[in-house]
Amino acid sequence: MAIGFAWGGWVTGDSARVMRASAETSGRMSVLVPLCVAQFTAADGALAKFKATGPYSRENVVGEFVKSVASTNMDYSFAKACATGIETEIGKTATKT
């Protein structure tokens, strides 16, 4: 049994539930973050305020302009992921010009 857990990849029921929840959240974020970025960049004045805000409070700016995406309310982890997506999008557009 020890070999199964150590080398065989066996996990307990609680570990499996944690891994499932993590995978579900990751999959959901991969779909919702691009939608959030699109909604945020479409809002008037959002990018200017985002650029003017320090990196530690950008999640608040995202939450101010985007309240929900596809019936998913904005929470801290979602706002942080969206802010990271927005930073990536700003970086892409900066290198194109």
Description:
Helix 4 crosses helix 5. The protein has helices at 2-6, 13-42, 46-52, 58-65, 76-96, and strands at 68-69, 72-73. The chain has 97 residues and is mainly alpha-helical. The chain has a domain at 33-97. A two-stranded antiparallel sheet has the order 1-2. It is built from 5 helices and 2 strands, in the order ααααββα. Strand 1 and strand 2 form a beta hairpin.
The gist of it:
This protein has five helices and two strands; from the N terminus they run ααααββα. By secondary structure, it is mainly alpha-helical.
Pick out its properties.
97 residues, 5 helices, 4% strand, two-stranded antiparallel ribbon, mainly alpha, elongated
Structural class: mainly alpha
Mean pLDDT: 79
Biggest sheet: strand arrangement:
1-2
Order of helices and strands: HHHHEEH
Q: Based on CA inertia axes, which overall geometry fits? A: elongated
Over all CA atoms, what is the radius of gyration? 18 Å
Distance between the termini: 59 Å
Low-confidence stretches: none
Number of helices: 5
Give a topology summary.
Blueprint: H1 2-6, H2 13-42, H3 46-52, H4 58-65, E1 68-69, E2 72-73, H5 76-96
